[in-house]
Amino acid sequence: MSSLLSQTVQPPILTLLSSTSIPPISPLFTQQSDPSSSKSIITVIHDDEEIGRQSYIRPRNPTKGALKHRVVHIQSPNLTDTYTQMGSDPPTGHTQGPESRSGKPIGATHPWICLQLRRLGRRHFSLEVGLVDSRGKHGIVRCSSFQTTPTLHPDRHTPLIHLPIAIPPKTASQLTPWLDIALNLNTLISLFGILKPPSKATEDSTPAERPSKRLKEDSSHLPDGSLGSITYIRVYANCRLRKIWLSEHGQKTLNELGQAGHYDFGLFAARSSMT
Prior knowledge:
Layout: E1 13-18, E2 29-32, E3 41-46, E4 70-75, E5 83-87, E6 112-119, E7 126-133, E8 138-144, E9 151-153, E10 160-164, E11 179-184, H1 185-189, E12 227-236, E13 239-247, H2 251-255, H3 259-265
Parallel strand pairs: 8-10
Antiparallel strand pairs: 1-13, 2-5, 3-4, 4-13, 5-12, 6-11, 6-13, 7-8, 7-12, 9-10
């Protein structure tokens, strides 16, 4: 199956989303929100903007360390109902959400995925990456702020590992709540063969992820080895998102860009009246 990046040369760093670009959200991304809720929103605002519209979720505590940049604001009372996504879902025969406008997987081969985001107040958020290993087996890596223990869900139509996101505690010396999250997919693929399923069913799945009839002891369908390609990237509510990029060697690749990379990928504070 062809992909969004078929027959293209992938540079060492491949930016998929940059809220400071024009347009802030690439046409290759699709947005899904709950039309029945006025509080289910995906929009672009300045991070230091005081949000006055009633439909927005206000942080319980004022946030210091806002950026001077525009950011993608994603919110919803139910985080699984609202997200932005690039690429298509795995070919399970079920619709988990709207596919990319092209209906194609991303097809990126870089193993490192990096995101700059912050959650809205103390509300939880989640993100996930669909992948294919070097042998063509599909899997999903999901990371959530509410997850406490890494778990494996091998009996879904597409096997999934669910990992916690560590949120640093707020301190007086903290400069910003923004996070640089870096995932090495080559390392995470090995977790499909290491992690154990939860002792009881959890409710962290979407309707399309109901268990299949595979025998639990059969692990031949689980991804292993190394990354083949990335099929899709999805970021759920409740967070603000500045940038998503892929790289060959993580921070090492970024360091090789020198000062230009620091300016483009650095987080710069806004002049704010908040104290």
